[in-house]
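Fold it.
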Amino acid sequence: MFRPKLLDTLRQYDRQQFSKDLTAGIIVGIVALPLAIAFAIASGVSPEKGIITAIVAGFIISLLGGSRVQIGGPTGAFIVVVYGIVVQYGVNGLIIATFMAGLILLIMGFAKMGTLIKYIPYPLITGFTTGIALIIFSSVIKDFFGLEMGAVPADFLTKWMAYSKALSAINIYAVFISMFTILIIIYWPKITYKIPGSLVAIIITTAATSFLSLPTDTIGSRFGNISFSLPAPGLPLIEWETIQSLIRPAFTIALLGAIESLLSAVVADGMTGGNHRSNTELIAQGGGNILSALFGGIPATGAIARTATNVKNGGRTPVAGMIHSLTLLIIVLFVGRWAALIPMATLAGILVTVAYNMSEWKNFLSIARGSKSDAIVLITTFLLTVLVDLTVAIEIGMVLAAFLFMRKMTQFSSVASITNDFGQINHGDETATTDAFQLPKGVELFEINGPLFFGAAYKFKDAIRVIETPPLALIIRMRNVPIIDATGINILKDVHKSASSRGTKLILAEVHSEQVMKELRQSRLVFLIGKANILPTVDAAIRRYQQWKS
């Protein structure tokens, strides 16, 4: 259940692989620097907290993780959640929520829930991912255009109303820096992949802003003096009332972290041909978030873009991820003081590209054009993420997806009466012939097709009600019933009780599913109906009736 991939990879580790991991780790560390700063600022916390998270959580996630190449750290997906927590509960509340989320992730991992995450519907994931991308984009408009305005409102619509009032005071220098940053990030890979475009943009724009004294906000002018040294570990005072108020945000952080980290691990498996351990990965994510909180960091998870960068540059073991964290630590210790000179417009440009890459707009449009149920889940989750709250979006999205799935499954379930005319099945105006057998007089035969669960049980109940004269025997054919739930069992009990009170013999025929038979035994229906009245074929059921009659 818990076996870090590091233990497996070290068995055949050699100098050649270390060289590749070293190169990949250094490159990913350089890539992670501007992203960690940008994500922290967009989340409403100081820049060093993003760096601390990337160093501490990133190291632990690689050390203990269930993926060979996973890179952990702060990601854009958490911006919305973290910003909301900071606004409502402050930075201390965020630290406590991150710590609680780490504990929840540990529980999920040890409870072997890693495999369950895969059952979250793809339209729901796409809906809240695209919603988060839109929120990230809207959160950086102030710095992108250099707007002179107060604190940006948290509510999406209120935020854009505030922007519309401040658009008359656009800072042309900020716009130029933001656009230049985006262009560098887009076109720099055509020159080389070894040096990330975001770092090149930061170096050029920071140098230009400093030497030309451009009138635009920088990290230093916004946040003052910044300390990039690692603080002593510790937690704020935690009270029961605090835990009660933060349990929902903590659960959201944990669920989002689990989803994104396992999605990232799946992507990495596709790139490397590997196979990650989902439960071990959740445990590592939990440990990373707990340590991040102890050092005053923010939530962390597996980062798909940085993980892909690691793979493309030759990283094949968790050592590369650990080197990425150590690279970040060395950078901030020796050149961290220069980070205060980075223009806020540069970070805004970086986040705009992050938002675009997160948006998955092609997948969004593809799902929206697909089945109605998928489109409903997609658009509902998207709108709730943007206009209400990510927690509400996930909760309602899951419930809606479940109901729509049950509705679809119900459509595949049917109950048909088989007439006395050599086994014809009646479906209203439609008929479909089945096995040829002659039903004796006084026998009613019904066939159930599809799962007999609470969403479809009413069809069976309604079909039984159409019987006008109580038959001598009621045969229920269940050859196409793969599963049955408590509601289906209860319906069969009601049918048996009703049949017994009217002197009708109940027979079950062709119960092929092991799951159905198991439920029949555990509910004592086999005992109530009688084992001799559960037969392998309809012909055997008819012969059973004829034995009674004779």
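The chain has 23 helices and nine strands.
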